[in-house]
Amino acid sequence: MGALMTPGRVAVAVIALLTLVFIFENTRNTKIRLLIPEVTMPLWMALLGTGLIGALCGAFFVGRRR
């Protein structure tokens, strides 16, 4: 049970919480351009999507290493 709250896991949880606070504090609309089309969306949605894509890429590469 002691391995549940390791310093590394606590640090990751704090960073994840701060990231979510940062994302949801940025609620204004912004223009996003991906190659050709330009869309207007809330900035929090773009930040959250980028974070999720980064997390999935990280999980993929960590999983392949094991």
Structural class: alpha+beta
Range of strand content: 15-25%
Instruction: Give the overall average pLDDT.
Output: 86
The proportion of residues forming helix, as a percent range, comes to 55-70%
**Gyration radius from CA atoms, angstroms:** 16 Å
Q: Let me know the number of strands.
A: 2
Count of helices?
A: 2
**Main sheet makeup:** 2 strands, antiparallel
Report what the structure shows:
- This is Lipopolysaccharide assembly protein A domain-containing protein.
- The protein has 66 residues and is of the alpha+beta class.
- It has 2 helices and 2 strands; from the N terminus they run H-E-E-H.
- The protein is flat, with a radius of gyration of 16 Å.
- The longest helix has 23 residues, at 43-65.
- It has a two-stranded antiparallel sheet with strand order 1-2.
- The model has no long low-confidence stretch (mean pLDDT 86).
- It starts with 6 loop residues before the first helix and ends with a helix.
- It has one domain (7-65).
Short key terms for the protein model shown above:
66 residues, two-stranded antiparallel ribbon, alpha+beta
